[in-house]
Amino acid sequence: MKDSCSSISKRLEKYFDNEATDEEKSLVGKHLLSCPPCQSALTSMEGIRDLMKGPVEEAVQKEDFSWVWQKIQREIRIKERPTRWEYFLSWLDRPSLFQKRVWMPAAAAIIILVLITAQLLLKKTPSYPDPTVVVYTESQTHNVMVYESGKGMVTVIWLFEGPEKELPAS
Amino acid sequence: MRRRTLSPTLIFILILLLFLFSTSFAFAQVQTRVRVVYASNVGAIIDPLLGDLHNQLRSVFSFTSYRLLGDVSIILIGNNPIEVFVHRGRSIELALVEKHRDMAEMKIMMRMKEVPILNTQVRLSSGKTVFIGGPLYEEGAAIIALSANF
C-alpha cells in the first residue's frame, strides 16, 4: 500500500457508499487504477455488501412496514393524548389557581352558598298541625257548601245555583 | 395595569353551586291528579276506570251512576299556576301555595267559560282527595276529584 493509501482509505468508504463528492470520486478512481491493495479493499467491501444484501432484502420483503408504521403512529397518538385525569391535573396546575386573589372570593362564595343550600336541603319541614282541609272558599256566582268526612279522608266543595234551586245529592 | 379576569375554576364552582342552589328550590313540587267524573241518577253504571275513587264517591254521594270523563296528572312547582280544562267550558287553575312535609296547600280557581265561579284554597295530604262538584245539570253533576302525591 502506498503512502497516499492512508488518505485514500478514509475516502474509500464514502466512495463505496456513493457519498463522495465528484472531486473525491475522481481522486479515488485514479488511485484505484494504480493501487492493487486498495482495489482489494474495495472488492472485499463489495463482497461483504453482497453477503448482507440478500438476507436483508429477503427480511424486508417479508416485513409489512406499512402495518408497523400504522401501529407506531397509533401508539404515538395514544401516548400524546392526555387522560382526563392528567388534563384535570394540568388544569389545576395553572399558576392562577394558586393566587390568593382568586381563591379568597371563591372560598367565601362557596362557604356562603353551602351554608344557604345546606339550610334549605336539611330543613325539616314540620308536619302541619291544622287538620282543616279547606282554608277558604268564595264564589260570586254560586252558593258554596263545604263538607268534610269524619276521618278527614274525603272533603267536598259543592256549588249550588241557589239555595232554592237545588240540593246536594246526599 | 393588569386586567383581572375570572378563573375558569371559579366560574365552574359558581355554576355548580348555582345549580345546587336552584335544585334545592325544585324540591317544592307536588304531583297532582285531576279526575273528572260525571255523576247522575240515570242508570247504575260504575265506570271501572274509577277504581278506588268509586268507594270514596259512594261514601259521600248517593248518585247511582259514575262515569270518568277525564284523568290528568300535573306537577305543581312553586307558585306557577296550571290550568286544566275540565268539562263543558269549565276549567280549574291550580297553584301550589305552600308545601309541608305531609301537606300541600294549593289555590284553586274554577272558571265557567272564562268567568270565575269558585275561588278556594285547600290543604291536601298525600293520598287524600278533595271533591269539587256541582252545580247540578241535566240528570247529574260533574265532580272534580283532586288528589296529590308527594
Quaternary structure type: heterodimer
Helix proportion range of chain B: 10-25%
What shape does the CA trace of chain A take? rod-shaped
The best one-word shape of chain B is: elongated
In DSSP terms, counting alpha (H) and pi (I) runs of 4 or more, how many helices of chain B? 2
Provide the succession of SSEs of chain A: HHHHHHEEE
Number of strands of chain B: 8
Strand order of the largest sheet of chain A: 2-3
Structure report:
- The complex is a heterodimer of chains A (170) and B (150).
- With 170 residues, chain A is mainly alpha-helical.
- Chain A folds into three domains: 4-62; 84-122, no CATH class; 129-170, no CATH class.
- Chain A is built from six helices and three strands, in the order ααααααβββ.
- Chain A has a two-stranded antiparallel sheet with strand order 2-3.
- In chain A, strand 2 (143-148) and strand 3 form a beta hairpin.
- The radius of gyration of chain A is 50 Å and the shape is rod-shaped.
- Chain B has 150 residues and is an alpha+beta fold.
- Helices cover 18% and strands 51% of the residues of chain B.
- In chain B, the strands form two sheets. A four-stranded antiparallel sheet of chain B has the order 2-1-8-7, with helices on one face. Chain B has a four-stranded antiparallel sheet with strand order 3-4-5-6, with no helix packed on it.
- The longest helix of chain B has 19 residues, at 8-26.
- The model of chain B has no long low-confidence stretch (mean pLDDT 85).
- Chains A and B meet through helix 6, strand 1 and strand 3 of A and helix 1, helix 2, strand 5, strand 6 and strand 7 of B.
